[in-house]
Amino acid sequence: MLPPISDQPENSTPLPNSPTGHDKGSNESQFLSLLKTAKKKELAALAKILMPYLAEAEMRQLRIWGDKSRLHLERATISVNDLLVNTRSGHVTIEEECFFGHRCMLLTGTHDYSKTGHERLKAVPDSGRDITIKRGAWLGSGVTVLGPATIGKNAVVAAGSLVTGDVPPNTIVAGRPALPVKKIDGTPYE
Q: Where are any strands of DSSP class E within the chain?
């Protein structure tokens, strides 16, 4: 957030027509007032200047749908990038040294498919669909995990995969649905 114009350094010159940098009847800064009068072409130029900063921030923004207290990052040691986490129907736990490519989703939420219309929309279980990402797991970009699921220690989930159950430790899985491909040491999965 930009500081109000009145917080200028002592030697700066205040903007014309406002000794405080604020309109008399509001908390709106002169900058925001001026921005509201900008033409479409001027706003497009400003957007072009700001876009790299906004894009960078978005790529590092964790998004949570549901109760934030159900997301357990206490042991996480690496940034989760722009992970989307749905905690409507369970807890999500991320352990140490796990990392995520961009646009991954961990989804505990579901709806009762036997219902219809608004009744289906409101029929969301409160629990039973927990997701746990064990120490050292790597989820490539675009991975979706549907709970309940546990991604095992040091497991690798290939980019774009859809996980619909547990992934064994030290295993590489890929596909939609994700299936074991091989062990992380290169030996075949048995």
A: 63-65, 71-72, 84-86, 92-94, 99-100, 105-107, 131-133, 138-139, 144-146, 149-151, 156-157, 162-163, 171-174, 179-183
Give the pLDDT of residue 26.
62
Please report how many Cα atoms fall inside a 13 Å half-sphere around the Cα of residue 100, on the Cβ side. 29
Length of the chain: 190
**Across the strands, what pairs with 84?**
63, 105
Structure confidence by residue, pLDDT tens digits, 82-132: 999 999 999 999 999 999 999 999 999 999 999 999 999 999 999 999 999
Interatomic CA distance for residues 95 and 76, integer angstroms: 5
Residues designated as active site? 118
| Cα–Cα dist 34/132, whole Å | 49
Q: Are 88 and 105 in contact (CB under 8 A)?
A: no
Residue type, 102: H
Interval 146-178: pLDDT, tens: 999 999 999 999 999 999 999 999 999 999 999
Query: Which amino acid does the sequence have at 58?
Result: E
d(CA 76, CA 68): 15
Reading the block at residue 39, the tokens are: 């033409």
Q: What angle do CA 100, 104, 107 make, to 5 degrees?
A: 120
For residue 4, the Cα-to-chain-centroid distance in whole angstroms is 30
